[in-house]
Predict the 3D structure of the following.
Amino acid sequence: MELYRKLLCLLLVFLPSPIKIYIYNKFLGCDIHKTAKIGMSYICVRKIKMGAGARIRHLNIIKNLELLELGEVASIGNMNSITAVPSLSRMHFKNEKDRYPALIMGEHSAIVKKHFFDCNNTISIGKYATIAGLGSVFFTHGINLEDNRQELNKIKIGDYSMVSACSVITKGAVLPDCSILGANSTLHKAFSQSHTLYSGVPAQAVKKLDANFKYFHREVGYVE
């Protein structure tokens, strides 16, 4: 059954968006809105949910997730890698009983280009948030040196926030609502202060941001 699913998903890469959406919904149990669009990308996950106007562009590899969810008008750009170890794997994460490999994107959120997401646990991207530029990496797992075992934790990017280019986000990290992570930074823990610029390796709060900035009050996710 899994081999059949993988082969079908490979075939779908080359089909027009309306046909692949029909097949995903009809035969693979997905829930994709008729106005959503999927480009030439390999998507082999347990469940896809895409709201009205959501879009996945070209040359993405998205595999082994339990859930890929895009809210209304959310978008994934080109050449992103979004992967996980299959949930049923007996070789990895044996001590992590409640892990849920998923990428959940709020309405009008966006992942731009050439980013990497290790979704061995859930990564949540809030509404109107942007994973900007290129080259950022998200890791939900890492080695516990003391206990010599792999550990997992979730990652959360808040509403109306932005992750700038070439950043590293590690397990357990939280970027609060209406906050910015500066380019080439490492977000390594859960922060709580909104309307803040975080920057550095490791990241720390650098300065407060004006709550009246128009970016934090957008009604359309795309920034011209």
User: Anything to note?
Assistant: Residues 198 and 206 are 6 Å apart (CA to CA). The chain is about 10% helix and 35% strand. The chain has a mean pLDDT of 96. The first strand starts at residue 31 and ends at 32.
